[in-house]
Design brief:
The protein is built from 14 helices and 12 strands. It has 2 domains: 138 residues, Aspartate Aminotransferase, domain 1 (Alpha-Beta Complex); 242 residues, Type I PLP-dependent aspartate aminotransferase-like (Major domain) (Aspartate Aminotransferase, domain 2, 3-Layer(aba) Sandwich). The protein is α/β, with parallel strands linked by helices. Helix 2 runs parallel beside helix 9 and helix 10 runs parallel beside helix 14.
């Protein structure tokens, strides 16, 4: 019998948790429209509001701060618009985004390109705070919206959000944070970190795909006009009948992640660090991306000189191990990562970037299987190179 496959691509999507599947199935069987006033509708509404509180608790927010969306991409597009400062007498004039952001931040905003600035990162993938300060100074006190991710999907590198927030608020701006990859993996408290608007996605936590949230600090930030017009759902900011089953699953996943975050972070970091040791043992010349700074505990990104990601992914997949060459949104086209390019990684090395991302169902045996498959891959590579040199 063939060995079970090993899944090490949780940053792309995490398999649905059994508890979440049970909640989703129950919600599907329950039925009812949350906007209806009869008993079935009230029960559905109660389920939505329970999940809203569970998601809010994950990031230290109030229940009413959560706006459910179809996912992280929609939430980012919803937040990054000129009318993003509630109560402002004028639209936000400039948007500043980090160079290593997700495509939905880099390209999904509602600002003219002439009104957008991109702030760089250092060789470790961390934001250039001095550069951000200069950009904010140049704004001259005009309303500015700044978007900085909590953690990067490809490298796991965590950004210094409190320091960013202090700069942004001192200049009268608002801070949006894409926390899709960080929530449930590292502690997130919106108030403590000074975040005005936060983006989440359910399927990174073991909930279904197709559900996410925009979470708003009280009275500070968020769209002041409807993103989707129609009914009055989601505080009249996002019309449409709520996806009851996905919302219920999102709530359960958020609660599980929040309750176990400290123990789970330690467990995942142990798996990541063991995998890193195995890579270094088998390929001493491997380059680890972000190893010198804080990373999410579940993410390992590296490259071996001379090994392309396309070759690596195919070989590992044939041996039953699923990993990634970077963001899932770039899968299928092996092109240099914009994240690694922003970090100054040479293109030939960036083309070999491999990402392992662990999650709720990852075990020590997965690291063993990966190590065996990776060793086989390297042996094939070296045999091929020796044959070519002969």
């Amino acid at each position: 019998m063939a060995a079970a496959r090993i899944y090490l691509d949780h940053n792309a999507t995490s398999p649905i948790r059994p508890e979440v599947l049970a909640a989703v199935t129950s919600a599907l069987a329950r039925g009812g429209n949350p906007s209806s006033v009869h008993a079935e509708g009230r029960a559905a509404r109660a389920l939505v509001e329970l999940a809203r509180g569970q998601v809010a608790a994950l990031v230290g927010a109030r229940r009413e701060a959560v706006i459910f969306t179809s996912g992280g991409t929609e939430a980012n597009c919803m937040a990054l618009r000129p009318r993003a400062l509630r109560g402002s007498t004028a639209p936000v004039e400039r948007l500043i985004v980090l160079s290593v952001e997700h495509a939905s931040v880099l390209g999904g905003h509602g600002f003219d390109e002439s009104a957008r600035d991109v702030i760089g990162v250092d060789a470790n993938g961390r934001i250039d705070l001095d550069g951000l300060a200069r950009m904010l100074d140049r704004a001259g006190g005009a309303p500015v919206l700044v978007s900085v991710q909590a953690a990067n999907s490809e490298t796991g590198i965590v950004q210094p959000l409190r320091a960013v927030a202090d700069l942004v608020h001192a200049n009268g701006g608002a801070l949006h944070c894409d926390a899709v990859q960080a929530a449930g993996r590292v502690p997130i408290d919106m108030d403590a970190l000074g975040i005005d608007a936060l983006t989440l996605s359910g399927h990174k936590l073991g909930a279904p795909a197709g559900i996410g949230a925009l979470v708003l600090a009280p009275g500070r930030a968020g769209p002041d006009v409807s993103f989707l017009r129609g009914g009055g759902q989601e505080s009249r900011l996002r019309a449409g009948t709520e996806n009851l089953a996905a919302i219920a699953g999102f709530g359960v996943a958020a609660e599980i992640a929040g309750l176990a975050i400290a123990d789970e972070a330690a467990r995942l970091a142990g798996l990541r660090d063991r995998a890193e040791r195995e890579v270094r043992r088998l390929a001493p010349d491997a380059v680890m991306f972000g190893a010198g700074v804080e990373r999410t505990p579940n993410t390992l990104a590296f490259a071996v000189p001379g090994l392309t990601a396309e070759t690596a992914l195919m070989s590992l997949d044939l041996d039953g191990v699923a990993v990634s060459s970077g963001s899932a949104c770039s899968s299928g086209k092996v092109t240099p990562s914009h994240v690694l390019a922003a970090m100054g990684v040479p293109e030939d090395l960036a083309r070999g970037a491999i990402r392992l991302s662990f999650g709720w169902n990852s075990r020590e045996e997965d690291v063993v299987r990966f190590s065996q498959a990776f060793e086989t891959l390297l042996q094939r590579l070296y045999r091929r190179d020796r044959a070519r040199a002969a």
